[in-house]
Amino acid sequence: MRAHDLLHTRHVRFHTTVLLCIVGELDIATAPLLHHAAQTCLIEPTDTVCLDLTGLTFCDATGLHALQQLADTFRRAQVTCHLTGISPQLKRTLTQRPTPPAWTPPARLR
Length: 110
Known about the structure:
Number of helices: 4
CATH superfamily: STAS domain
CATH architecture: 2-Layer Sandwich
Helix content: 25-40%
Number of strands: 5
CATH class: Alpha Beta
Radius of gyration: 13 Å
Distance between the termini: 33 Å
Largest sheet: 5 strands, mixed
């Protein structure tokens, strides 16, 4: 299968806020798609990106790294990054990471 068959991203813009929905499997094969999604979100002026992970069905260590890189990309562009729709397993993994995330702390996630 191709990466585009395993992971889909879609963004919705409202003024300077973007909702970025990530659906499918996030791993070594699909991680590069997130970089493209970030660049697409930043084409127009953006203050805030909300990453909706409700549709994320699988995320390995490479996927976690890709999420961190995505958040770092937004931070470098001075864009606030929030996560939403996090599964209990992913939330547990995020709270156990030794380095602080570049997004809203998981304890404050909804």
